[in-house]
Amino acid sequence: MTDHPLLIVVLAAGKGVRMRSAVPKVLHGIGGRSMLAHVLATARAAGAAKLALVVAPEMEAVRTEAAKLAPGTEFFEQATQAGTAHAVLAARAALERHTGDVIVLFADTPLVEAGTLRRMIEGLDAGAQIAALGFEARDATGYGRLIVDDNGRVVAIREERDASESERRIGLCIGGGMAFRVPDLIGLLARIGNDNAQREYYLTDVFSLAARDGMVTTPVHCSEAEALGINSREQLAQAEAVFQTRARRRVMEQGATLVAPETVWLSFDTAIGRDVVIEPNVFFGPGVVVEDGAHIMANCHMVGARIGKGARVGPFARFRPGADIGTRAHVGNFVEVKNAKLETGAKANHLAYIGDGRVGEGANIGAGTIFCNYDGFNKHFTDVGKGAFVGSNSSLVAPVKIGDGAYIGSGSVISRNVEADALALERSKQEERPGWAAKFRALMGKRKKSA
To answer: Would you tell me which of 276, 351, 357, 378 could form a disulfide with 340, CB atoms 3.0–4.6 Å apart?
Structure first.
């Protein structure tokens, strides 16, 4: 690899008409990030020294996404949609400057793995000039077939409509990606014609040209799932299912228990520790870390959160970005946490909102407690000290500090700081009128009869 620096050209100019969307096709998400992000991450993991992205005009959102995810990516515009070979040649300037290997990937084929790309380079190291990604299809209908000779070398690709009866029985289909170690790749691509029904320049025509020149093209096998190209919402859902199956398997192999794996949804960066138990119907958005021994009960939703060692959360807990649940902390049903830290052993067991604040070690947040953090313009901080006890149905109006060990009486609205170990109450005086209820019922009964 060091002798052959790697340029990966990613084709992202497709409009994705079948997606029926105002969003560019390659920005649709799988596992919490875009298709494009998956492909760029795979390219980096495979050892790409340089990245070139081919886009269509007015794809500023795609450029912005790529620049954020992979700084240093070079952009090229395919002004007209004239086929995949034409798209690669749109990056002519990058190809002319590069002296190593080249891989061409498609941004709408997001499930190809870095190990597969490395095997493509190994195919070049073994003496081939071109490596072509291929897969054995369960049903090859509609796919282009890789035609190989007796030595296992690819000599052509045959579209199904052009294939003979015997060629249609071939199960090895083109997977999209290609790797090149060719002295004059631009010259080879420039010879591709457009004598076909679509009048387009197909990259796959390079195989027959290379074979005529005596070049060796080797097939590199991948799974059918890796080669899944996405052109519709249905295929997007299929790709999501593949991603989730992979992610769940990885989490379980690393030592977590998923009680009902098919109901747990993970993101590309979800990090789950050992001996974590995850009950059914849990959703992990991007940026979630769950440390060893935590227990996630059913029907929780979390994004951008950390759950500490041995913590117990749920059922029906919601964690928004910045939620930090400490070691052995408890967060129960219908509790929402946002941009707040619950320290070791803190508890909020039911029906609370904890936003923009801190709950100190061992403190208890009673049912119905609200951190009133927003004044309509700015967010303010609530600080609940170590060992404090906040009674049920309390409102803590930020900015406010509850001292260590302080008690807040149930039903209080606390808008001023409370000293350590103090009791704070804020209630109207209870009034009682003996016999009032019986008189009221009698009066209402008479009115009802006379109505």
So the answer is: 357
Q: Which of 197, 149, 139, 147 is nearest to 167 (CA)?
A: 147
What residues contact 142, with CB distance under 8 A and at least 6 apart? Answer: 160
The three-class DSSP label of residue 274 is coil
CA dihedral 291, 292, 294, 297 (to 10 degrees): 90
Beta strands in 144-198 (DSSP E): 145-148, 154-158, 172-180
Question: 57 to each of 63, 78, 179, how far by Cα in Å?
Answer: 10, 7, 26
CA 2 to chain centre: 31
| Known catalytic residue at 221 | no
Q: Exposure of 97 by Cβ count < 10 A (0-12 exposed, 13-18 middle, 19+ buried)? A: exposed
Q: Token pair for residue 232? A: 């519709």
- Choose, from 28, 38, 301, 350, the residue flagged as catalytic: 350
Q: What is the dihedral of CA 319, 323, 324, 329, to 10 degrees?
A: -40
Global pTM reads 0.90
Q: What is the rounded CA–CA span in Å between residue 20 and residue 236?
A: 13
pLDDT at 199: 85
Structure tokens at 160: 């199904």
Alpha helices by DSSP H, 9-97: 35-45, 60-69, 84-89, 92-97
